[in-house]
Design a protein that fits this description.
Elements lengths: L3 E3 L2 E3 L4 H4 L16 H47 L6 E5 L6 H8 L12 H8 L5 E9 L4 E8 L2 E7 L2 E6 L16 E4 L3 H12 L9 E7 L3 E6 L6 E4 L5 H15 L6 E5 L7 E4 L4 H17 L1
Parallel strand pairs: 3-5, 6-8, 8-9, 11-12
Antiparallel strand pairs: 1-2, 4-5, 6-7, 9-10, 10-11, 12-13
Length: 304
């Protein structure tokens, strides 16, 4: 509608329909399809398929190459065997306690084996598993084709008695799991965990050249401290060392022996466990020794 005049006034008419905005309605909304999950799933399937094909291809190619390399390697060793690269002999030096049979069994070699195929590191590791072997060096030479083995065997420092069995102990305190018959006087150690602590003790008592050679037994008491037996296993002098400050106690014993001849007397034990006191127990004397002691006292009295 337009403008209409009523008298002197003009009235402007507006179309209300033009200013009214339509209200959104669910029925009028248009939704696009959700395609991204399907696209992602499809891409993942394609990637998995490509990976599977690549893996199968590489595996087949690698196996073929590997089989070819194995074939060529075998042919090479067959050729070198024909040309004379075979093991002729084994020379061993440093073998004293290790039996020849035990060494041959762990090597598992025979004359005629291809000397080029020998894995020296593997042979070294196998030889060093033998109980007496501390270290082994292995090398090979050609024309003549000989395998050289140099052995360094363990040295026995003591014999460990535990559960009525005897085990040799090397210089590092390790148990040697092998039979052993000593050919010379050797220190006997007794007690649980004694091998683990014997070197600590020996580093102290071996410094003295007078008392140390007389030590026959070292008994580890309750996994805490040591008792030493001098001269004779059954009837010798027992020295009771403290749990701590062993070196100080040992020096005290050396001083008493040097100044008063303590270890020259007939004693049963010497207790060094107390810091400021030494307890000594006299042994039983025979009738002859008692008579000799009385005569010495009389001689000293007359001389006075």
């Amino acid at each position: 509608m337009g403008n209409q005049a009523y008298g002197n006034k003009q009235v402007k008419m507006t179309n209300n329909a033009e200013n009214i905005k339509p209200t959104p309605s669910q029925n009028n909304r248009v939704s696009l399809p959700c395609e991204w999950p399907m696209r992602m799933l499809g891409n993942l399937l394609i990637i998995a398929l490509i990976f599977s094909i690549s893996f199968i291809t590489v595996t087949i190619r690698t196996n073929l190459v590997g089989r070819q390399i194995d074939y060529l390697t075998e042919e090479f060793y067959n050729l070198t065997t024909t040309l004379g690269f075979t093991l002729d002999d084994i020379l061993v030096e440093g073998r004293k306690k290790t039996s020849q049979q035990a060494l041959l069994e762990v090597l598992n070699l025979k004359r005629g084996d291809n000397i080029l195929t020998l894995d020296l590191n593997d042979l070294k590791s196998r030889v060093e598993t033998l109980p007496w072997i501390k270290h082994a060096e292995i090398r090979r030479s050609y024309f003549p084709n000989i395998l050289y083995i140099s052995l360094k065997e363990r040295k026995v420092a003591s014999i460990w008695q535990i559960s009525e069995k005897f085990h040799p102990i090397d210089t590092e305190g390790n148990v040697i799991d092998a039979p052993f018959k000593p050919t010379r006087p050797i220190l006997l150690i007794v007690g649980e965990e004694a091998p683990q602590h014997i070197n600590e003790l020996l580093s102290i008592i071996k410094k003295d050249n007078d008392i140390w050679p007389r030590v026959k037994v070292a008994n580890y008491i309750s996994k805490r401290r040591w008792n030493l037996i001098l001269d004779d296993i059954e009837n010798g002098i027992t020295i009771k060392l403290p749990e701590d400050n062993i070196e100080q106690a040992w020096k005290k014993l050396i001083k008493l022996d040097q100044t008063q001849g303590l270890l020259k007397r007939k004693l049963t034990f010497i207790d060094l466990r107390l810091k400021n006191k030494v307890i000594v127990k006299l042994g039983k004397m025979t009738e002859e020794e008692r008579q000799k002691l009385k005569e010495n006292k009389k001689d000293k009295t007359r001389g006075a």
